[in-house]
């Protein structure tokens, strides 16, 4: 299969030097890409800024902002059989980006934020007969929020994990599908979980 995988964080700039982001390392997305490559799939990774070298044998598109990730994914999506959205996309951006570097004034500064583009939702609206596996990083009402995200983004399955997964070598996930079924709680290194998820995707979505 031809798989699109998103990985790492996105950045939303306040000015020319400061940005909003998160501590996502890209490890989970890269582990999935390695496992998919090793399983014989053609892999395109759309990745935000990370310190890790990308997996060899995969097409890599490097981006910074959420809009850049969206455009890269929309360009790749027509040529793919499915997507795994493992990126930790920044949900908000400043309404206006300042030119240059914002200087201190000795007082508070108000920052107005607006929502960024919904990358996985946009792919879901163009889904057709392809599959979508999303990730939901939740700290409160975890399962109900993950199920709502799966429905709203037209995912076939969603990987529920906790904020402790960010920038960690290990992870604990629960795999949920559209029928509300849980396919188990998996614990281990991100490479181990990446292999398990690709094996599950092969069994669920690979052409017979």
Secondary structure: elements and pairs:
Blueprint: E1 2-7, E2 12-13, E3 19-20, H1 27-38, E4 42-47, E5 59-62, H2 66-76, E6 82-85, E7 92-94, E8 113-115, H3 119-125, E9 131-137, H4 142-152, E10 157-161, E11 170-177, E12 182-189, H5 190-205
Parallel strand pairs: 1-4, 1-6, 4-5, 6-9, 9-10
Antiparallel strand pairs: 2-3, 7-8, 10-11, 11-12
Helix pairs in contact: 1-5, 2-3
Question: Care to describe what's here?
Answer:
Helix 1 packs across helix 5 and helix 2 packs parallel to helix 3. This protein is an alpha/beta fold. It is globular, with a radius of gyration of 17 Å. The protein has five helices and twelve strands. The strands form three sheets. Strands 5-4-1-6-9-10-11-12 form an eight-stranded mixed sheet, with helices on both faces.
Question: How many helices does DSSP assign?
Answer: 5
Strand count: 12
Structural class computed from helices and strand pairing = alpha/beta
Query: What is the strand arrangement across the widest sheet?
Result: 5-4-1-6-9-10-11-12
| Biggest beta sheet attributes | 8 strands, mixed
Distance N terminus to C terminus? 12 Å
What's the average pLDDT?
95
The helicity comes to: 25-40%
Short description:
Helices cover 27% and strands 28% of the residues. The protein is built from five helices and twelve strands. The chain has helices at 27-38, 66-76, 119-125, 142-152, 190-205, and strands at 2-7, 12-13, 19-20, 42-47, 59-62, 82-85, 92-94, 113-115, 131-137, 157-161, 170-177, 182-189.
